[in-house]
């Protein structure tokens, strides 16, 4: 339990926590156009993004970008395709085998009719694409590709689970948090305390972030008092 004690000494203010408790992140947008832009890091199978889409029906979500290493993209895309009621458009960008630069793009549209009984999130574009933490493409073309734009824009909400379970992942993960965050971005990261060492939180502090573990009353009863915690992270 040493990690729990060391990780709560930095406090987000009451207003910020109120916003997080209700997932009312619409007040923390970058101001670049209308709607919230969200990013999942280290998605794995895409299921957490499906859950987020289900919970986000009441917020003005505009764009969700779901990322992981290239070998996870097929499974992530399949999970999202099977939950088409949650999005309006799904774009899958994959690297072409044997080519370090070129990518292929597939576009899917939700086929539900407008009078379908299932409520779908309106006008939400979901993109599945590769992102290696700490690596960002340099844009030299005045007309960047969609992938280049997504890899170089700021997001209003960043989330992921079980991301910092190896010490060598800490610096590249934090580099991505820095790169994708504007001053009001809220990140929500799930952490298993027996494999995420205190050094991760020390590095967050040195990188200019503040953080706090969300209180147990914000999670379901069956998950309280366990060694898994949700941490809210934001630039100072």
3D structure, described in words:
The protein has 236 residues and is of the alpha/beta class. It is 24% helix and 28% strand. It has seven helices and nine strands. The chain has helices at 2-6, 14-21, 47-55, 73-81, 146-151, 170-180, 198-206; strands at 36-40, 61-68, 89-95, 103-109, 125-130, 155-161, 181-192, 209-213, 228-235. A nine-stranded mixed β-sheet has the order 4-3-5-2-1-6-7-9-8, with helices on both faces. The chain is globular. The relative contact order is 0.18.
The total strand number stands at 9
Structural class: alpha/beta
Order of helices and strands: HHEHEHEEEHEHEHEE
How big is the Rg? 18 Å
Indicate the percent of residues in helices. 10-25%
Count of helical stretches: 7
How confident overall, as mean pLDDT?
81
Poorly predicted runs of 5 or more residues: 1-26, 112-121
Shape: globular
Please summarize the sheet with the most strands.
Answer: 9 strands, mixed
Tell me the span between the first and last alpha carbons: 26 Å
Strand order of the largest sheet: 4-3-5-2-1-6-7-9-8
β-strand amount: 25-35%
What's the arrangement of secondary structure elements?
Blueprint: H1 2-6, H2 14-21, E1 36-40, H3 47-55, E2 61-68, H4 73-81, E3 89-95, E4 103-109, E5 125-130, H5 146-151, E6 155-161, H6 170-180, E7 181-192, H7 198-206, E8 209-213, E9 228-235
Parallel strand pairs: 1-2, 1-6, 2-5, 3-5, 6-7
Antiparallel strand pairs: 3-4, 7-9, 8-9
């Amino acid at each position: 339990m040493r990690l729990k004690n060391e990780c709560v000494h930095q406090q987000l203010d009451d207003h910020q926590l109120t916003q997080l408790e209700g997932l009312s992140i619409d007040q923390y947008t970058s101001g670049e156009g209308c709607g919230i832009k969200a990013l999942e890091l280290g998605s794995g199978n895409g299921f957490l993004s499906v859950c987020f889409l289900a919970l986000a029906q009441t917020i003005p979500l505009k764009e969700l970008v779901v990322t992981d290493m290239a070998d996870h993209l097929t499974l992530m895309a399949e999970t999202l395709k099977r939950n088409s009621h949650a999005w309006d458009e799904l774009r899958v960008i994959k690297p072409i085998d044997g080519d370090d630069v070129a990518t292929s793009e597939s576009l899917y549209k939700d086929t539900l009719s407008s009078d379908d009984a299932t409520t779908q999130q309106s006008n939400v574009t979901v993109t599945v694409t590769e992102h290696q933490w700490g690596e960002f493409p340099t844009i030299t073309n005045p007309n960047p590709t969609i992938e280049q734009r997504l890899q170089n824009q700021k997001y209003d909400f960043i989330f992921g689970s079980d991301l910092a379970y190896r010490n060598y992942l800490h610096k590249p993960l934090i580099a991505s948090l820095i790169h994708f965050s504007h001053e009001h971005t809220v990140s929500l990261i799930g952490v298993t305390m027996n494999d995420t060492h205190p050094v991760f939180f020390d590095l967050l502090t040195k990188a200019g972030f503040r953080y706090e573990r969300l209180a147990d009353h914000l999670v379901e009863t069956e998950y309280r008092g366990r060694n898994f915690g949700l941490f809210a992270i934001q630039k100072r």
